[in-house]
Amino acid sequence: MRQALLGSAALGAALVSAGAMAADGVELEISGRYKGAAGLVLSEDFSGSSDVRGGDVRGYVFKQDVEIDFEGEIELDNGLMVGAAIELQGQTDEEDQIGSVYAFFRGGFGELRFGDTEEAYAQLCYQVPTASELFGADSPDFSFSNAGIAGYGATNGTCYGIDDNSTKLVYFSPVVAGFHFAASFAPDASEDTRNTLDGAGTRFSNDAGQNSENLSLAGTFTQDLNGLNLILGGGATVSFDKEINPNGTGEARGYNAYAQVAFSGFTLGAAAELREDFGDDGADQWVYGAGATYNWSAWTIGVGWTRGDYEKAVGANEGDPFNAGHDIYSATASYALAPGISLDGVIEYSDYQSNDAAGPDYQGLAVGLGTLITF
Q: Across all residues in the chain, what is the average pLDDT?
């Protein structure tokens, strides 16, 4: 999930009449970023029916997240921009080494992307403001809470979609009078596939619980009003087919909205997301929150809060599903050592409470220190 608005312009009639490309095609440039952090749990309490106790988990941790990006584009004789982008995970991952890979075509009509990439709903999305690109109350890169042991919702997020980086078609409109929208469609949740998948060239349509035929729509409005910058937006994502669905659970769908205002170094914002029927058991999730940051010179500080209400959550004890609420409070700070290089810190508190006697609870206070290095 990203706080910066992704995408801007590409579509198709010009593809047929495209002019001659350069003899060597597109030259890719290398960029990326390194994120690393250390976290310390100052205090925590597991209670309820959870089988986990405080002594079962380590009180500190080292984490890192590395991404290498290869991207390039070329302008054809008719003005059409054609390019490709590949996101490589910098650490060994047996499940998915490539985060995203797609081709794009950009012109006055907008931008068209085809490949493994996030849906429109997730790409045009702003989260609860935070001072750090590493930490925060809204789906941070690094969290040191052990609330995920108690039940669903180790972190709260307001920009989750349905199918992550499955192979899809995405369209971004041009920005007109501050308005910008995007739409995407994915046949199913498949990604990283070249020819056949389990022998099926067109993919199976009977994968238990898979959300397929996914349509995503999103829009945003930005306006600068004499030094006051306003951002408003939201989106919807819908699956029209839940495969192998003996319980008759409704098709998965999600809705989100956000608003931000920035002035004189301050940024204030709020975000919310409702996710329905993402699991076979019909579990729903409602997440909302607000935050503020202030920037002066090389410093940025911020505070944020999110609340997640989760229906039919399941904890590490694998007991019966229960309803739960998760509040996350985060104070963040970032100091710019140089352009693209920062030193970040966080103080975070998690309060996970089950609403049923059978469910577990968790409270924890942690601190963290990390760095962001872009290249």
A: 88
